[in-house]
Every structure is written in C-alpha cells, then in structure tokens.
From TrEMBL:
It is found in: Cytoplasm. Keywords: Aminoacyl-tRNA synthetase, ATP-binding, Cytoplasm, Ligase, Magnesium, Metal-binding, Nucleotide-binding, Protein biosynthesis. Its main location: cytoplasm. GO terms for cellular component: cytoplasm. Gene3D superfamilies: Bira Bifunctional Protein, Domain 2. Residues 119-350 form the Aminoacyl-transfer RNA synthetases class-II family profile domain. The gene is pheS. HAMAP family: Phe_tRNA_synth_alpha1. This is Phenylalanine--tRNA ligase alpha subunit. It comes from Novispirillum itersonii (Aquaspirillum itersonii).
Amino acid sequence: MDTLEALRAELLEAVNTAADADALEAVRIAALGKKGRITDLMKTLGQMDPDQRRTFGQAVNTVKDEISALLDARKATFAEAALNAKLASERIDVSLPVRPEREGTLHPISQTYDEVVAIFGQMGFAVAEGPDIEDDFHNFTALNFPPGHPAREMHDTFFLNEQEGGVRHLLRTHTSPVQIRTMLSQKPPIRVIIPGRTYRCDSDMTHTPMFHQIEGLVIDKATHMGHLKGCLKEFVESYFEVSNVTVRFRPSFFPFTEPSAEVDIGCSRKGGELRIGAREDGCEDWLEILGCGMVHPNVLKACGLDPEEYQGFAFGMGLERIAMLKYGIPDLRTFFDSDVRWLKHYGFGPHDVPSLTGGLTR
Ligand code: 2NL
C-alpha cells in the first residue's frame, strides 16, 4: 500500500508539472500504457489471494481513475492554451482587397436571345416554348408543306428511328411547330415569340447542324401587313439601336405564309464597315435580315381557326445571323467551338442584362 501511495503522489506530481502536451502524453504512457507502472500493478493481481485482490484491486483502480481524470483535464488545458495562442497570433485583415475570381461570360447567342425577348416583351409578346423532338404533323403538315416537299426528305431533316406503328419523329427544322401548338391550345388574340434550337442536315462554312431561330406570331380578327411592317421596323430599330431604319419588303415564298416577304434593311458599307440604318449620306445597300408573311389560310385551318374570322402575321429569323451582324462576328462556326478565348472576347458580363430602359447593351 505504501508503494501505491508513493506511486500516486509521484504520478500526480508528474502530470501537474508536465510542461506541454507532448510531455503529458509521455507521462500517460509511462503510467497507463501497455507497460505503464499502473498497468504493471494490475498484472500482479492474478497472483494474490481473493481478499487481497479485492482490496488492492479497488485501490489501484481508484488511483488509475484519479490519474486518468487529471491527465484529461491537463490535456484540455493545453489544447485551450494552444487555441488561444493561435487566435492571438492570426488575424483576418478585412481591409485587404478580395482575391480575383474567374468570371464566366454569357454566350452571344444567350445575350441576343435575351435582347430579342426584351424587345418583343415590351411590345406585348409572350415567350412560348416547345419540344425539340417533333412529329411530321407539327413540323410539316400543319404548316402547309405538300407531301413531296424536299424538306421532308432524309437529306434535309434529322429523323429518329421509326417507332412501332410506323411513327417517325424528327428534330424540328424550325421553331414554327411551337406556333402550331400555341394555336391549337390557345384562343386568339395570340401574340407570341418562340426562341429556340433548330436542326437541319447541313454543315459547311455558313451552316451548322444545330442553330437557333426566333419566330413570332400574331393572330387576331383584323391583323394586317401594316401591323407586321410596323412591328418589324420597331424591332430592327430597337435591336440595332438606331432610329429611322429603312425597311424593304421583297416578295418571297414560304409554304406557311401568303403573301410572303423577305425583309431587308438599309445599310452602308463604306470603308468595309457595315453600318445599319438611314444616314445623312444615304443607304446605298440592303441587308437581308428576316422572312415573314401573313399566316396561310391552310395553316389557320389545320389549327382549327376559321380563316374568315381570324388572320395574322408571322416572321422568323436566325439568331446567329442577327448576332453576327450586331457584334461583328465573322464566322458562324465559332459559335459552337466552345473556345474560351473566343467566349472571353465576344461574351457578355453576367450583369449586362438587356433592358429597354437600362440600354440593351452597355
Ligand atoms: C426565316 C423565315 C419565317 C414564319 C417563319 C410561321 C409560323 C407559322 C405560320 C406561319 Cl405557325 N409562319 N413562321 C413565317 C415566315 C417566315 O421564317 O427566314 N426564318 C429564318
């Protein structure tokens, strides 16, 4: 018992005087480790008679618990002191400038899309969307494409594998099927624009298999070509941020409109620089920017509308084309290269949100 009391006093002293966490750990191992002094004492219990074992065992356990508790307390004290020292030595300097962060850019197609939506939104158009995978009815038949029309050939259109029952879906070749869906599901008056992806089997300098269109549709009882012309003139002037643009309607043909027209705007190309709009020195050239027309009576009928009661106009343009014209992008294919340097150069800041009051492009 004397030796146990002596050991207790020695260990308490060692724990209390350990200089740091490492020294304390050394004390713990020397006392309670596999070959520690208290562990050694426990091993001697086996050779004692039962009475002695009970008394001595209890005494050793008491000492063991006491030392353990003191070790834990000292350990916590060292940990807290270390944390306090760390807090005292480290400071956050809130006046330092922030680290530069890499900022992404908006693709010019996204920017152009947002600009066009902002302009037509202001004129009271709603955005409509529809599926990229379409069927023959919505993409061709309802749009007055005759049965043998070349656009219906494998050569021009991406067809999906034939399904059971002979149905063959396709990737929409224009956004017009969304207008068909709108006319089938909504009653006039209708005023919608449809921006979206479109697909054609075509790939060269000026064509990519996927491209973007934006189409518009207005249906009411007395909508006429004057409305169409005014609407498009307003759009062109807002989009190109110029006033008094001359607009020329050139007769054209689309299966889904009658009459149909190609729209040109006045421009000049002096010194190799394209400038859009009427100018003091006149417009010596024309630039084709979109196609349009009055919705064909057959299209109205296919959508359950009576051509004697309703009429309207529609127009369509390529987003890539109008983006190239406004932002001076010379090569269509670069839109889809995902070249980060190109995106940095032609891309837009995420906060350059186009609005007619704040300026379309800042
Ligand atoms: C172009 C010309 C156009 C339309 C699209 C349309 C849609 C319906 C009915 C009638 Cl549902 N027309 N869309 C009309 C005229 C021209 O697009 O050059 N697009 C790139």
